[in-house]
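// run 5 | inverse folding | seed 20
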């Protein structure tokens, strides 16, 4: 297993020259689902509670391992680099390569790094606590092209599709599962392109957000498992989505 963050490689393989290692059980929070957040309201004068929506909580990830250095100066440098990871409050991509394949998410620092020198100039132990405000993990991208396509992914949670359309094109409608429709009322000249993000309902033309270019604006996810059909009223489209996991 290998974890990458902010240009650092945390190596969980048997590589002898690894500077930052990660223990095989030291990536807590990546392989299990995030917690559940819900409100509970008791039924007055009745058994049980009202059925209210459940949501998944932020994903907390803990990286734990060793830092191998060659000399006191290098050890201090290595630990300073580690202590500065995400130190300015920014968010960055954390990616993992493991037997299950590739996964990634955006994380921020949840607490200051915990660093302990075990052998001066040689070995230190660290723990990084990170949080992903969006608890979803993403894997391999899937790509489909046509006027009517069965789209699918290999994750275990709903994935939000992105649709790309190239001109020339008159206004068009994209149809999705359950009779949902997304109507784009703006045409395209030859050489222009639309990007439709079905998570937010936003439409971009040549990378610029368009206002007033949408009629009916249903949005939808693609569930894991069997393919879901998406179709175009005229011409062809490209549908992009990532394997998505909880």
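// decoded
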């Amino acid at each position: 297993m290998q974890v990458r963050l902010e240009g650092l490689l945390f190596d969980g393989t048997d590589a002898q020259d690894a500077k930052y290692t990660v223990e095989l059980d030291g990536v807590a929070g990546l392989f299990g689902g995030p917690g559940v957040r819900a409100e509970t309201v008791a039924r007055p004068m009745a058994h049980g509670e009202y059925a209210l929506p459940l949501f998944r909580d932020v994903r907390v990830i803990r990286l734990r391992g060793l830092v191998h250095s060659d000399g006191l100066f290098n050890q201090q440098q290595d630990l300073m680099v580690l202590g500065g990871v995400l130190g300015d409050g920014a968010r960055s991509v954390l990616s993992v390569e493991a037997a299950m394949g590739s996964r990634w998410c955006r994380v921020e620092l949840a607490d200051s790094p915990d660093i302990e020198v075990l052998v001066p100039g040689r070995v230190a132990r660290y723990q990084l606590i990170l949080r992903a405000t969006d608890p979803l993990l993403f894997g391999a991208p899937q790509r489909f092209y046509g006027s009517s396509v069965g789209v699918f992914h290999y994750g275990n949670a709903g994935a939000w599709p992105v649709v790309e359309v190239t001109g020339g094109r008159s206004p068009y409608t994209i149809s999705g599962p359950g009779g949902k429709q997304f109507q784009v009322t703006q045409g395209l000249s030859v050489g222009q392109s639309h990007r439709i993000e079905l998570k937010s309902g936003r439409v971009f033309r040549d990378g610029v957000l368009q206002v007033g270019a949408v009629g009916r604006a249903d949005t939808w996810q693609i569930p894991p498992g069997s393919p879901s059909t998406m179709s175009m009223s005229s011409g062809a489209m490209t549908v992009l989505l990532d394997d998505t996991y909880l």
